[in-house]
Structure formats: C-alpha cells, structure tokens
Amino acid sequence: MKLLSVNVGRPRPMEYRGATGSTGIGKQPVDGPVAVSAPGPKGVAGSGLAGDAVVNLQHHGGDDQAVYAYAREDLDTWEKELGRELPAGMFGENLTTLGLDVTHALLGERWRVGPRLLLEVTSARIPCMSFQGRLGEPGWIKRFTQAGVPGAYLRVVEPGEIRAGDTITVEHRPDHDVTIALTFRAMTTERALLPRLLESGAALHPELREWALKYIRTQEA
Is 192 within 8 Å of 103 (Cβ atoms)? Predict the structure, then answer.
C-alpha cells in the first residue's frame, strides 16, 4: 500500500448553473514533501496540508476533515464508466492511494503514511455542487451517491511530512464494523443506519454523532 500522489489546490473561480464563486476542489499533484498537521476547528481552519486551500469553511476542513483520501483503483473504475481520464486530484482528494481499500476502512482506523504522519479515519465524503461543477457530468451527485464509493476524511493524530511514493501502513483497526461504505449510506440514502455509527466510539466525527443522536431522539418521540 502506498501514497501514489499528494494533491493540493488554490482557490479558483467557478461558475455552475449561473452562480459564480470560488472553490479549492481543483487539486494538483505536487512533487516535494508536504507538511501535514491538525488545522484547527471546523469553521475557522481549513486543510491539514500546507499550501492547500479550503474555501467553504462551513462545510469543509477542520480537524475532523483535515485530509481527504481517494483510491486510485476507484478512480480507474470511474474512468471506465465515464470514458475519460481522471488524473490524481480530480475528485478533490489530497491523497491518492494505491492498494488500500478506502471504502471498507473502519472509522477509527489509523494509517501511518511515510515515517511520521499518523491519520485516523473519521467519515465519508458527501458530494456537493462544487464537485458536480468540477466533474461537469450530468446528474453527477446522484451517480456518485448511488455508487457508494465516497473516499474517506481523516484527522491528524501525529503530524509529519509526506510525499508521493510513501508507504501506507494500517497500524490499527478497531473492533467494530462501521466502515466508510456503511457511514456513507447512513449519511445519504439509509438514515436508519445512523445509530450504528455510534458503535465507532470516540473516532466518530462529532457532526455525525449529533446526527445519530438526533435521529434516535426523533424515533423515540
């Protein structure tokens, strides 16, 4: 398992359905080492990668979404379905991985990337309008959701520098079965699964914990 590419982006103008703004979703591979650290609270801080921009701090960035990873194998599958090239960073991912089953990673699973960086899986990525605009594919949000291969957000447990080619080692797998795939279904098409996310304990993204508890309260009312 290895890190195929490290990708960062700067704010760029975007127009979609007549609306204009800026986005940092357009990530590009970088050659040299990139420092990765916990950025700070969501709403105030952005990406965990030095030199990487997060424009919409309300929905992106912060300690529990400091890094976004997507598997090269899943990009290859999308290439065949869409009939177009999807270079590393096209989905807005910071880390393009090879040989790592991101979809079935467990919440709380820990990855050592290179000699120092330690990351912890926190949640699945939800497709947004910026992603739709980036791909330019009709009905992209629906197609991406139906596929159920969302990639993973991670928090930084131990900071460090990384670069393309670094080894990735799974150092810890928790004793539960709450995967990224299950989490994504709970967040999108199968809300009845939300209570199961609580089985992941302290690793669960705080916002997802609130979603799950609110769902339980609603069902008990």
Answer: no
Query: Which residues make Cβ contacts (< 8 Å) with residue 142, sequence separation at least 6?
Result: none
- β-sheet bridge partners, residue 36: 49, 160
Single-letter amino acid, residue 54: V
Q: How many CB atoms lie within 10 A of CB 161?
A: 18
Q: Enter the pTM of the model.
A: 0.93
143 C-beta neighbours (distance < 10 Å), count: 16
Digit-coded pLDDT (tens) for 89-129: 999 999 999 999 999 999 999 999 999 999 999 999 999 88
Q: State pLDDT tens for residues 27-71.
A: 999 998 999 999 999 888 889 999 998 877 777 889 999 999 999
Q: How many helices (H) and strands (E) does the chain have?
A: 5, 12
DSSP type of residue 44: T
Q: Where are the beta strands (DSSP E) in the chain?
A: 2-8, 12-16, 19-23, 28-29, 34-36, 67-71, 95-98, 110-113, 117-124, 152-158, 160-162, 168-172
CA distance 199 to 196: 6
